[in-house]
Automatic annotation (TrEMBL):
This is AI-2E family transporter. It is a multi-pass membrane protein. InterPro entries: AI-2E-like. GO terms for cellular component: plasma membrane. It comes from Streptomyces minutiscleroticus. Keywords: Cell membrane, Membrane, Transmembrane, Transmembrane helix, Transport. The lineage of its organism: Bacteria, Bacillati, Actinomycetota, Actinomycetes, Kitasatosporales. Signal peptide: none annotated.
């Protein structure tokens, strides 16, 4: 039996698919920064979308543009208030540090105080004295990293502004885009997509608010513990711990290491006390705060959370760690809906507010295959 020749159309199709995949991957690599900003803006838009809907319902004759502007203005003021709440003690302690800096440097050179004693025990001062020329050359070469830091800070500021504008436009124009896309399918399928989308949105909102609340609690308790232990610059250290705690899996440990080292530099009893505090707090956060705050919205078991964070961190770094849990929650919602409908048991995902589908659209009966609303 003679082998059949491969059609030219099939060969061209395979070549076209390979080229299209390569071009798509190249575009993703080249525009990864913009894509990251877009993903972050999308999560913020999903989190603020319900608030805009409530303002539209509560304020008579309120246009969506006005409601969106009000919500973003309130969110900006809230973020500014939180920043001011932390920046005020940060500036005070920074000023105090600048005033004590000459004294600290002199004590370090003379081997006095906690820093001086530490440098004396680790023989750092002797190393600096023996390698003075190398240290000066290293300090002279810090100009390039400084320029890189300034450039990175400018890029970060541009990213923050871009994310804010993108999130605003997504919230403002999102319903039009969604309605236009759902108009391409029938009403029953559109209602199902709306319900699944509403459940995914609640997962994202619950994770963001829950994670932020846990970080605030961690920062406040750390600040109190540092004040009780008498560790200087407690506000600065607590702010770092709170920000680090936003990163799942490793953030709390990183913050604990920094706070513990700062406490040990102050005194050994303070360092031991901070270690005991973080060990106890980690147990409380892992077994009380996270289950109570996150389980009601994300509803993922610890094994799934751990695997999702590890895989996402390996693929996308810190951004992947931050988005791993909400993405895993959305995947779970979608898979549950697909599995239930495939087995003839459609899931009634609760919806409320402006996320609710039109009342005239209901799920078809599995037995009859027709719409029971008709």
């Amino acid at each position: 039996m003679q082998p059949r020749p491969v059609p030219v159309r099939a060969v061209l199709t395979v070549i076209g698919l390979v080229l299209a995949t390569y071009i798509a991957w190249h575009l993703v690599v080249e525009t990864r920064r913009v894509l990251v900003w877009t993903v972050i803006a999308l999560f913020f838009a999903v989190a603020l979308h319900p608030a805009v809907g409530r303002v539209e319902r509560w304020v008579p004759r309120c246009r969506r543009a006005v409601a969106t502007l009000l919500v973003f203005a309130v969110a900006t003021v809230a973020v500014g208030a939180l920043v001011a709440l932390f920046v005020t003690p940060l500036v005070q302690e920074g000023t105090r540090l600048a005033g004590r800096l000459p004294e600290l440097i002199e004590d370090a050179r003379a081997g006095r105080g906690p820093v001086g004693n530490l440098l004396e025990r680790t023989h750092v001062l002797q190393y600096v004295q023996r390698h003075g020329d190398d240290v000066r050359d290293f300090a002279a070469g810090l100009g390039t990293p400084t320029l890189a830091f300034v450039r990175g800070a400018a890029t970060t500021l541009a990213g923050v502004v871009t994310v804010f504008v993108l999130a605003y436009l997504m919230v403002l124009e999102g319903p039009k885009v969604v309605d236009g896309a759902l108009a391409l399918v029938d009403e029953v399928r559109a209602a199902r997509i709306r319900r699944v989308g509403a459940a995914c949105a609640r997962t994202v909102t619950g994770y963001l608010t829950g994670n932020l609340l846990i970080s605030v609690i961690c920062g406040v308790l750390t600040y109190i513990a540092l004040l009780v232990a008498g560790v200087p610059f407690a506000g600065l250290i607590a702010l770092f711990v709170a920000v680090a705690d936003l990163i799942p899996l490793v953030g709390a440990t990183l913050g604990a290491v920094v706070a513990g080292l700062a406490a040990f530099l102050h005194s050994v009893p303070a360092g031991i006390g901070m270690i005991v505090f973080f060990v106890v707090y980690q147990q409380v956060e892992n077994h009380l705060l996270q289950p109570v705050i996150l389980s009601r919205t994300v509803k993922l078991n610890p094994l799934t959370v751990l695997l999702a964070i590890l895989l996402a961190t390996d693929l996308a770094g810190i951004l992947g760690a931050l988005l791993a849990i909400p993405v895993a929650g959305m995947v779970k919602v979608i898979l549950q809906d697909v599995w239930s409908h495939r087995h003839g048991r459609p899931v009634e995902l609760p919806v409320h507010g402006d996320d609710a589908p039109p009342s005239r659209s209901t799920e078809p009966s599995p037995e009859s295959g027709t719409d029971p609303a008709r």
